[in-house]
Structures are given as structure tokens and as C-alpha cells.
Amino acid sequence: MTQPAPPPFSAVVPLYAAGFTTAFGAHSIAAGLGAESGPGGLGLNLFALGVLLALYDLAEVFLKPLFGSLADRLGPKPVVVGGLVAFAAASLVGVFVQAPWALAVARLGQGAAASAFSPASSASVARLAGPLTGRYFGRYGSWKGIGYAIGPLLGAAALYLGGFPLLFGVLSLVAAAVAVWVAAAMPRLEPLPRRRYTVADLARQIGDRSFLGPTLVLAAATGSLGAAVGFLPALAAQSGLSTAAAIAAVTVLAIASSLVQPRVGALRDAGRLTDTRGILLGLGLIVVGALVGAAGATAGTAAAGVAVYAAALLAGAGIGLATPLAFAHLADATPPERMGRTMGSAEIGREAGDAGGPLLVGAVAAGAGLGWGLAALAGAVALAGLAAPRPVSRAGR
């Protein structure tokens, strides 16, 4: 059997860079806001900090499906380029004004802009990849993982060297450079003919297992990532590790996820790993990682320190397994002319998980301790395994 020709390297790498930009922007600013929220910095109370952190995700929840549909109508390239340009412009607000209201405007603008180029980038990867969706979504996820890993570190360095003006300036320059790169190197993907869809059609799509299953998996994986980023450092601090060592646990998780995703995608495309088996294995690793962290919360200082890094490694590998397989499954089950809307709608599940995972762990931990909070996360992820998608033929291909 002839192996399908891969898309040109120059066509897809700018899309990987767009994925990196949204992850880098979201996590570098979030880490910076948390670090500078005290009386010596922005002077924010916890409620105001929570609002600033939530604005980015709030914009994405409402706007991603709209921009995904727009990408189907116009073709994804102008939506990717326009979103990146808007991200660069929104970041400039934080360069010139550092009052909390201005940071809120910048954060909301960045989230709205990411709502445009993130699902449009995913749809572009799906269309360019053809039958190699696993491999290319694995690489796309790996680049986003790198953004998650180094975002807080680069954000901390920028804050140390020049405060929020330098951090927002770097983000503006990165987004502008990637916009130029996409405009120059990505081929234009023309909008495809599509029939008119009714509200009933949309309801059937959302309720179909080929959409609902991978979307719930993405929510579980992203919720685990959000919870781990926040609570593994807290567990590390409880065990007596330094701040640097606590942050390093998050880096271990992100690197593990970034290394696993391209390999998983290649195995899928070679027929050596099915979506169902890989997703269940990935969710299982997340469950084990959360339980290891839960056990570490009740262990001695040395054992807790080991548990933090073991949990980070297991959770990162599990997230790296489940995420590209869920995205590839969605791409294969979706007609190309509806790819943008589907990816935008699926991103709502990811955002819900990103908010719900930390909320679940925090709510349980507040009443019963961090160990029980992580155990609750393990239970929720295990339940998500019941929604693991079944094999599906490629839609419209």
C-alpha cells in the first residue's frame, strides 16, 4: 500500500507555532498575574485575581464555536492570520498601561483573539494532514505542550527583567511574527461546499458519540493538566521542596506530554495503536498519577517529594497519549467542510475541563485535604473513560 504524501513541512510548522503562541500567552500571563498580585505588585485580592485569570478562558468558551464556523465559511487561513494580528494588538495594551483594568482588557482581548486562531489552526492541521491526522495532531500538541512548559519560566524571566511591559511586548512580537509566517508559508485552504445545517443537526452532532466521546476525553485531559499545574506545586511545597523544585514538577509534566504526543500520533497512523486503546491507556496513566499524588499528600516529606515527580511524569504521559488521539478521532469523524465548527465546539469541552479540574480538586481539598482532592480527580478521569470513542471511518474523505 502506498504511503500518502505528507503535507509540506513549511505549510504546517507555522500552525504549530500558532498553537505554541496561545499556550505560551495563556500560561505566561497567568503565572505573572499570580506572582505579582500581592501588595508589592498589582495589589489584587483573590477575587480580582480570579477574575483576571478567568477572562481569557471566558472569552474562549463563548467565541471559539463562532470563529470555528467563520473558518468554515472563509477558509481557515484568514481567521488564523487575523486572530494572531488581534492577539498582537491586544497585547500592546499591557505594554503601555499596567493598571488592573488595562490588564483585564488585554487579557480579554488575548482570549478573544486566541478564540479565532486556535480552532482555525486545528482545522487547518486536520485538512492538511489528510489521513495522517494522528501524526500531525501529535506534533501540534507537542508544540502547545512546549508553550505550557516554558510559558511560566519565560514569563518569570520577562517580569524580572522588565515587568509586565516587557512580557506583553514579547507576546505581541511573537504573535506578529507568527502571523507573518502563516501569511507567507501556509497555503490557502478554500472553503468547501456545505449544506445548510439546522439547530436540530447541531444537536445531533453534539450528542453523537463520535463528537461527545473525544470531547469528554479532551475535557478530562485538560482538566487534569489544569489541576496538576496548580496543585502539584502546592503538594511539593507541603513536602518542603523549594519554589524552583515545585515549578520544575510542572515542567516535567509538560515535557513528558510533549515527548509522547508525536510518537503516539505516528503509532496511530501506522495502525499500531487504536484510538480507544490509546485513550483508555492515557486516561489510566492520569488516574494512576493522581492517585500517586494523593498518596504522597499523606506520606512523609521525602516520599511526598518523590510522589510529586512521579505523579507529574505519569499525568504528563497520560495527557500526551489521550489528547492527540481524541483530536485525530474528531478530525476523522468530521466532514472537511464542517471542520472549523467542530474543532471550535470541541474546544468548549477543553475549556470546561480546564476550569472544572482545578475547581473539583480545590473544592474537595478545602474540606477533606489535598489527598482527597487528587483522589476525586482520579475518579472523574476514570468516569471519562466510559466515553472513550469507538472506531470510526473517515467522514467525507
From TrEMBL:
Its main location: membrane. SUPFAM superfamilies: MFS general substrate transporter. It holds the Pfam family MFS_1. Residues 11-397 form the Major facilitator superfamily (MFS) profile domain. The chain crosses the membrane at residues 15-35, 42-59, 79-97, 145-161, 167-186, 211-235, 241-260, 280-300, 306-331, 359-388. The keyword Transmembrane helix applies. It is a multi-pass membrane protein. This is Major facilitator superfamily (MFS) profile domain-containing protein. It comes from Sinomonas flava. The lineage of its organism: Bacteria, Bacillati, Actinomycetota, Actinomycetes, Micrococcales.
